[in-house]
Each structure stands twice: as C-alpha cells, then as structure tokens.
Design brief:
Layout (H helix, E strand, L loop, with lengths): L1 E4 L2 E4 L2 E3 L2 E5 L3 E6 L8 E4 L4 E4 L1 E6 L1 E2 L2 E2 L5 H12 L3 E8 L4 H15 L9 E2 L2 E4 L21 H6 L4 E6 L6 H11 L3 E4 L6 H9 L4 E2 L15 H8 L3 E5 L10 H8 L3 E4 L11 E5 L2 E6 L2 E3 L12 H11 L4 H7 L2 H6 L16 E4 L5 E6 L2 E5 L1
Helix pairs in contact: 5-6
C-alpha cells in the first residue's frame, strides 16, 4: 500500500488537512496521519495539493498531433503530453472530416486502449465524436463538405469506443437519432454546433441528450425572448462544457455559469494540435489554423479550438470566481467522468481508480499517478 501525507487533500466536497491518502491500484481511503499503516510506502507532499486526476472529455490534439489523424504514435504523444498537465484519462476527440478518416481514428484508439492502461501517458477512455452530425450554419471551424445527417446506426455500431457524440438536434432525423442512440447504447449525446431554438434544445434533452458542447460557442445565443441553446443549457440539468481559456468565454461569465450549473459544469480544453506549440500555422480538420498567444483562428477569423491545458482551466476558474477549489477541481475531474459514464474515475473516493495528481499551490503539476503508479514527476 502507498500513502501520500503532508498535503491538502481535495475531495468532492471538502479539502482535508492533517490527513493521508491511502491507495494501491484503487483508492483505499483518507485517514488521520496517526493511522497510516506501518508498512505503507510514504510519499511526502508538504506544501502541495493532492487531487483526483483530471479528465479531459473534449480534446482534439496536442503537441502537433490530432486525434483525427488516425496515427497511433500521435495518440501516444498526446497521452504523454496531457499527463504532464495532470490529465489521467481523456477522450481523443474527432471532428467533421471524412467518415473514412473518422473510422480510422476510432480504430486506432480501439487498438491502443488496452495498452493505455499501463503506458507512460493518460488512459484512453474512449472517443468523443464531435461531428459530422452538425448544422452547417454553426459549423465553426469544421469542414462543411463532410457534414452528414445524424446516423444512429453508425454511432451504435461504434458504441464500444464512442463515449460522447455531438448532434445538432434540429437537423433532419436529429431527434429520432438521439432517442435511438440513448436507448440502444451507452453513448451520451451532446447538443452542439447547432442552430436549435431554446424549445428545440429542450426537446433534445427530453429525447435523451444529456449535455451541451462548449457552451456559448457554435450555438444559438442567450436572448431574453429567444433563450437559445445557451439558455437551455443554463436552465436545464444537462451537463455543460465550458472552455475556460478566457478567450472563448469572457471570464466575467465564469461565476454565472458555475452558479447555474453547479455539479453539471464540465471544464474542457477543446485543445488542438497547436497546444503546447509555439505561435504559428497549424491545421485542424484539414484547414489551416493560426496560433497567436491563446487564440487559435482560421484565416477568416473564426475561432478554431484552443491551446488550453486542463490544469490551466482550473487556475482560470480559481482566479476569476469565488468557487471553492474543490468544486472547480470536480468540474475538471468528477463531473466530466460522470457525464461520460466513467464511473471509476474522477475523485479520491474509496474504491475509485488510483488516478491522482500532486500539485503546487498554483496547481502546477508535480506528480501524476495513474492506477497507483507514478507515471510523471516534474
């Protein structure tokens, strides 16, 4: 058995001091330091936080690699890179490229999933399929020529690896597809890249959709007479993604969204291959994107994903809201794990997978532990 002592331990509803975290491959529990077993392997973490490993359920790429490339070495590189940001499990996220490319990307993640349980990187928890079942009018940085009508049978056929699928419900066959996917598989449907009205979005939730893709971005906005998808996301109990890089969404709205969503808030990165790279030209879904600072844009100025790290999203929320840190951490760990059906992930509760991070007081990563093994040390 292993034990982390001397740190502030971030649990779902509190931060504990003067206690120790016991674990092997699973979390054993939190005990008083005087009750640490004599034979435990001690990891001292004075002046640190101990938190659950972060879970990024919406990330396209990192370190000049992209999930839609369908490249095994690229996925390995992404997994190792995000692990250094405190991510212990993630969903490589495909976008609106050709179905041949999407299926290749799914096959690659399938082939690597077992290996990812023990490799030097974050665990491949499945795939987030963001597209091609979207509305062209809200395509954002996605390629119009590859947009398709929602195909429930295709999603169900690939439900062994797809955990989340974005659908614009108002498109032809959208509601029927949502009902079929959510009743015949474990795939979670997210409303996104959509021109739906408030009423249409709420109907999608009634049909089985359980979340909203990157709130505010690529969807109908909030207006007092036409609340749109943003209004539906805020007013419903749907899980709601937010890109907290301070560019996609003004930081002045962070507190408002958090107060509306509480434990249904999910912090995501929506990171592209430009993440972790210097300013310059990269690509997303076959289109050139241009990185300058925290801004990723197409040539016409359309926002094209981010370069956000998930531990930075936690910092941004900490610095711009009065939320307790344990609630912010849950928004980047427990909430996304629950939303994606990853029941063994996301918190330091007894019996969960021992996916743990040790951070400094600024939430920079010191150690990443996955399945009870130290996989990264700064």
């Amino acid at each position: 058995m292993k034990c982390i002592k001397g740190a502030k331990i971030i649990l779902p509803h509190s931060i504990e001091e003067g206690k120790a975290l016991l674990f092997d491959e699973k979390i054993v529990g939190v005990v008083e330091e005087k009750d640490i077993p004599a034979d435990a392997e001690i990891i001292s973490a004075e002046g640190s936080y101990v938190a659950p490993g972060l879970v990024d359920v919406h990330i396209h790429g990192y370190l000049n690699e992209d999930a839609s490339d369908g490249n095994a070495e690229g996925i390995r590189k992404m997994a190792e890179g995000v692990m250094k940001n405190g991510v212990t499990a993630f969903l490589p996220t495909t976008m609106t490229v050709s179905m041949t490319e999407i299926e290749k990307a799914l096959d690659v993640v399938r082939s690597l999933q077992e290996e990812s349980k023990t490799w030097k990187g974050a665990y491949l928890a499945g795939v987030n399929s963001e597209g091609p079942f979207i509305n062209e009018s809200k395509k954002g940085a996605q390629a119009a020529e590859h947009i398709k009508k929602p195909d429930a049978d295709w999603v169900i056929k690939n439900s062994d690896i797809i955990k989340i699928c974005t659908i614009a419900p108002e498109t032809e066959g959208g509601y029927e597809a949502i009902k079929k996917i959510t009743t015949e598989s474990s795939v979670k449907v997210s409303v996104g890249h959509t021109d739906a009205t408030f009423e249409e979005a709420m109907k999608a939730f009634d049909c089985g959709a359980t979340q909203v893709t990157h709130l505010f971005n690529a969807q109908t906005p909030l207006h007092h007479r036409k609340p749109g998808v943003v209004g539906a996301g805020l007013a419903s109990d749907a899980y709601t993604e937010l890109i907290a890089d301070t560019f996609h969404v003004n930081k002045g709205l962070f507190s408002l969204v958090a107060k509306c969503k509480k434990d249904k808030l999910i912090l995501i990165t929506d990171c592209t291959r430009a993440g972790g790279m210097p300013d310059g030209e990269y690509s997303l879904g076959g289109q050139p994107i241009f990185l300058k600072g925290i801004q990723c844009l197409l040539a016409d100025g359309t926002i094209a994903g981010s370069v956000l790290r998930l531990n930075e999203a936690v910092k941004n929320f900490r610095d711009n809201t009065d939320m307790p840190l344990y609630e912010i951490v849950a928004a980047a760990s427990l909430n996304p794990a629950k939303a994606a059906g990853l029941d063994s992930k996301g918190s330091l509760e007894e019996g969960k997978d021992a996916d743990i991070i040790i951070t400094d007081m600024n939430f920079d990563i010191k150690k990443t532990i996955i399945g009870g093994e130290i996989r990264y040390e700064a």
